[in-house]
Structures are given as C-alpha cells and as structure tokens.
Amino acid sequence: MSSNLDALYRRVIMDHYKNPRNRGILEDGSHTINMNNPTCGDRIQLTLKVEDGIVVDAKQEGEGCSISMSSASMMTQAIKGKKIEDALKLSKIFSDMMQGKEVDDDIDLGDIEALQGVAKFPARIKCATLAWKAMEKSLKEENQD
C-alpha cells in the first residue's frame, strides 16, 4: 500500500475516532449488547433497532483505542437500513478482510476499507472486530427466535 493511501486511511480512522457516528444509546432499541476485549480494555454497548428484519437504527457507546472506536462508528453507519442477512454478510466480509483474505472488489466498503491495514497487526484485530462481533451476536440471537 502506498504511503499516500496509508495516510488517507489514517485520516479516515482518526475522523471516525474523533467524530464518532451514531454515538449514544437507542431508548427504543430492540437489541442491546455489551461486549469488551479484556486484553486491551476496549468495551462497547451496541443498541440496534430491528423492524421487519431490517436494522433501522444503530447506536454505539463505549471506550477504547482509535481502531476499536472508529470501527464501531463505521460499522453502525454501514448496517443502518440493511436486512439482517446483509448486515451479517458484511460482517463476514469484514472478518475476512481482518484475516488478510482478498475481498471482492465489487463490494463497496466505504470508510471500512480504511481498516484493512489492521490485518498486518494481529494484536489489533480484536480491537477492530469487537463492534462487529457484538452486532453478529445480537443479530444471530434475533434469528434464533
């Protein structure tokens, strides 16, 4: 990856960290989950509002490193308005990206693409995936009903 692209990705990550999207708690959320990463202290509370199989709103609150918090911000933006199965599919794509696997170029990841460099730092992968794992767990429990 070129140093210009690295710099751009760093700016995108820091923008989401300093100006988190969808920060807060949904009072009328249908799903709330708390998760943490005990190895580094990252924690998240994710609240989702799901209606008719669609994630109509998502909020996140927590504390942690820039990778963890920016990933949560990006994830909530990405899943809003998506069907549950599409949100879970996006999570699988993100997980593959974090494992250094090739991601289909036809898929527009938007700002999430800025996190692809995290795959080079195994200790930081858990930071990047915390919010995604919370979303998966919450939505998969929904599908069990």
TrEMBL record:
<protein>
    <submittedName>
        <fullName>SUF system NifU family Fe-S cluster assembly protein</fullName>
    </submittedName>
</protein>
<dbReference type="InterPro" id="IPR002871">
    <property type="entry name" value="NIF_FeS_clus_asmbl_NifU_N"/>
</dbReference>
<dbReference type="GO" id="GO:0051536">
    <property type="term" value="F:iron-sulfur cluster binding"/>
</dbReference>
<dbReference type="GO" id="GO:0016226">
    <property type="term" value="P:iron-sulfur cluster assembly"/>
</dbReference>
<feature type="domain" description="NIF system FeS cluster assembly NifU N-terminal">
    <location>
        <begin position="9"/>
        <end position="127"/>
    </location>
</feature>
<dbReference type="GO" id="GO:0005506">
    <property type="term" value="F:iron ion binding"/>
</dbReference>
<dbReference type="Pfam" id="PF01592">
    <property type="entry name" value="NifU_N"/>
</dbReference>
<comment type="similarity">
    <text>Belongs to the NifU family.</text>
</comment>
